[in-house]
Amino acid sequence: MRLFLLLPLVTFCSLGQIPQLPHTLVPDWPQLPKGFIFGEVSGVDVDRQDNVWVFHRGSHPVIQFDKNGRMLQAWKDLGVKSSHGLRIDPGGNVWLVDVAGHSLLKFSPSGRLLMVIASAGAAAGDNDSKYAYNRPTSLAFHPNGHFYVSDGYVNARVVRYTPEGEYVQHWGKKGAADGEFDLAHDITIDRRGRIYVADRSNHRVQIFDENGKFLGKWTHLGQPWGLYYVAKEDAIYLCDGWKNRVLKVNLDGQILGELGSFGKSPGKFDFAHHLSVDSEGSLYVAEIKNWRVQKFARKSR
Fold first, then answer.
1. Using one digit for the tens of pLDDT, what is the confidence trace for 125-148?
2. Cα separation of 259 and 252, whole Å?
3. In 3-state terms, the chain is what percent helix, strand and coil (to 5)?
4. What is the pTM of this model?
5. 166, 147 in Cβ contact below 8 A?
6. pLDDT computed for residue 14 by the predictor
């Protein structure tokens, strides 16, 4: 069994020696129709057809694009107070996390509302609430069908549900000890069922089994904001909001490559918040302060 420990920094991961990821910016991606602009872009994910779904803080908060950047559909009047995480489940359904509305929403790909987890009146829950949150952030889907919600800015925990939305368990509280969180900002799950939580303000990623047993932590990756596991590569891509870069790490936490730095021009990042990877290996990075999502295509070998 692989043990997850606080890893020492290996030589190739020292500053200036990290290899660059083999990706290049795709200019002018996407092509928004006349009259459409993004607000702060908080979430992005891809579906099995490599269509790209974007969640942002503006009108039409959910927009779907094809991989070439052509808009396919846009949803408005969703009742979302403030966008945060977006995930596409294995069935193609679209899940939205409303951070200010303390709610989780599940939609069909055509925009039909299928499930809501929230208090009446969108009131905040406490750290022990089963069906309410306090500024939740994201979610991820386990190979067994269960889903896990990171909750979040005020609460400090992970909440587990069955595929039908029935509460199973939760773990975590505010703090810096193992198994505690100070802003559980994103979550991803590998093909073996291990759960990785971006413990943002503690500057670490924590790893758990499916029942919440602590397995280890990585503390050398800057300030993890977004996490995305890619099964094809058996690796995790990470938004480091502290240094405005994207990192790729293996499942031992070793840095395999990096991309980006702070800036306002194309190819740079300002509050790189969330990310996704399509079947071709292209990266999509959502930014809060630059009001955009950028595509970086993998260079052909």
1. 999 999 999 999 999 999 999 999
2. 20
3. 5, 45, 50
4. 0.94
5. no
6. 46
For CA atoms 245, 248, 251, 256, give the dihedral sign. Answer: negative
Q: What six digits make up the tokens of 85? A: 């995480």
Sequence letter at residue 27: P
Instruction: With cut-offs at 50, 70 and 90, classify the pLDDT of residue 9.
Output: very low
Phi, psi of 121 (to 5 degrees): 70, 10
Distance of CA 8 to the CA centre of its chain: 26
Contact 179, 171 (CB under 8 A): yes
Largest CA distance in the chain: 54
Sheet with 214-218: list strands edge to edge: 184-189, 195-199, 204-208, 214-218
CA distance 44 to 60: 14
Domains delineated in the chain: 11-298 (2.120.10.30)
71-88 pLDDT, tens digit per residue, is 999 999 899 999 999 999
Q: Tell the residue number behind the tokens 């193609």, with chain if given.
A: 92
**pLDDT given at position 6:** 47
Q: What is the average per-residue pLDDT within 93-111?
A: 98
List the 52-57 sheet strands across, edge first: 40-46, 52-57, 62-65, 71-75
Query: CB–CB of 140/188 below 8 Å?
Result: yes
